[in-house]
Amino acid sequence: MNKLLGILAVLLISLNAHGQITYLDINYNEVKDQSLATYKMEITMTDSIAGIKKICSIDGKPRSEESFSNLKKMTLSGVSKYWFNSGQLKEAVSYKENQLDGEVTTYYKNGQLKRKDVYKIDSLIEGRCYDSLGVEKAHTLFHKRPQFPGGIYSLTSYLQRNLKYPSSSRKKGIEGKVMVRFTINPTGLITGAYIKQGINNELDNEALRVVNSLPNWEPGIHDGEYVNFQFVLPVIYKLN
């Protein structure tokens, strides 16, 4: 029995070491058919809860490598790296429990250093930014997520005021959560909203309607530029 347990333990360690492979489409959604995949994701556990997630293109070029102290909770810790499509390193970012902590370095497509910051528990200690020729320029904010006007409480209040419970589902006592995925573009506008996880057509359609009716957000910033940010918003239906 001890010998069998030892063999099983070795097998489990081997599986963890080699990692779990998942195939993704161009939007990073999982696909079962490998021929439809644009990317390949490998997750390797480094202990019972920590792990490393690597994504590369099908032809083997790296796209991202992220270290998590808690993979299930997606808690970033350690150095995470991101690459351009060409394979040139784009960013190396140090995290501690989902907060910027340590060096943050970014690069232009030509390989020239773009930014070198030092953070301590999400606070900038020092930082320098450079143009594509290596000349130092005014420092810019590294990262800021989009904000709904008034914050999360205003967003919750807006949903409560504007969401209409469809009568048919109400009469049937249907409750649940609709997950709506969308993009906040560089001007703060919601685009490309779709149902990631639904309940039924009328509840899903109402969730989409109210999300698409949201006012413009304060756009997000990454590496000094306004960029697209993706969100998944839960729209909850609950009868009193």
UniProtKB/TrEMBL annotation:
Gene Ontology BP term (one): transmembrane transport
Main location class: membrane
Keywords noted in UniProt: Cell inner membrane, Cell membrane, Membrane, Protein transport, Signal, Transmembrane, Transmembrane helix, Transport
Leader peptide range in chain numbering: 1-19
Membrane topology: Single-pass membrane protein
Residues in TonB C-terminal domain copies: 150-240
GO terms assigned for molecular function: energy transducer activity
InterPro entries according to UniProt: MORN_2 (IPR011652), TonB-dependent_transducer (IPR051045), TonB/TolA_C (IPR006260), TonB_C (IPR037682)
Pfam family, one: TonB_C
One GO CC term on file: plasma membrane protein complex
Annotated localization: Cell inner membrane
Family: Belongs to the TonB family.
Stored PANTHER family: PROTEIN TONB, PROTEIN TONB-RELATED
Protein known as: TonB C-terminal domain-containing protein
